[in-house]
Design goal:
Layout (H helix, E strand, L loop, with lengths): L1 E7 L8 E3 L4 E2 L2 E2 L5 E5 L16 E5 L3 E6 L7 E4 L6 E6 L2 E7 L2 H11 L3 E6 L5 E2 L9 E2 L9 E3 H14 L15 E4 L1
Length: 187
């Protein structure tokens, strides 16, 4: 058994970044799901409802988040990495917290790309988001769905694809990227 891949998703529901190494923090891998896109009511947007989010390429510099459009419709945009800013109430599934609004320029960029009014928010260290107390009491999490680290194995993906093929031989296999896990273990 060995770690086959490490992934971070700096902006929830946008493209991920394969990394060689990462610091493990109480909230998960460093810089994983640190930002997210929300609608006007503060509810998070996902690829489930906005599949064009798959077209947002993300890169990180020391002091900036860079967003670019894979279709090259819009010029890339650099978002300064700050720890202050206006606070916005946001909701991820059943949890609510305060996040830092990253401003109108990136909000306009995302609104044009996603064709819906939205904003980019960053998790505030002043407002930690707790894990589900029933399953992970006392923990904190980034903007990930529920837990600090998401792990899967190549064996479980192979088993899933065997089952899919058995039930529908014409079905396409599922890719590991669809699970958006941080750690992929090869068995």
């Amino acid at each position: 058994m060995r770690v086959g891949a490490l992934w971070i998703y700096p902006v929830k529901s946008c493209r991920g970044l394969a990394v060689e190494h990462s610091e493990v923090t109480p909230k998960g891998l460093s810089r994983d799901r640190e930002w997210m896109v929300v609608d006007e009511a503060g509810r998070f947007l996902t690829q489930r409802t906005h599949p064009q989010m798959t077209q947002i390429r993300v890169s990180l510099e020391a002091d900036h988040l860079i967003l670019s459009d894979c279709r090259d419709v819009l010029e890339p945009i650099a978002v300064p990495r700050s720890t202050t800013g206006p606070k916005r109430e946001v909701r991820i599934w059943k949890t609510q917290t305060l996040a830092l609004d990253e401003g109108d320029v990136v909000a306009d960029w995302l609104t044009r790309l996603l064709d819906t009014p939205c904003r980019l928010v960053r998790q505030s260290s002043d407002y930690p988001r707790p894990t589900d107390p029933e399953y992970a009491p006392g923990g904190t999490v980034s903007f990930a769905d529920g837990y600090p680290l998401l792990l899967t194995t190549t064996a479980s993906l192979a088993d899933l694809n065997r089952r899919i093929q058995a039930s529908d031989p014409k079905a396409d296999p599922v890719s590991m990227r669809q699970f958006r896990s941080n750690i992929v273990v090869e068995l």
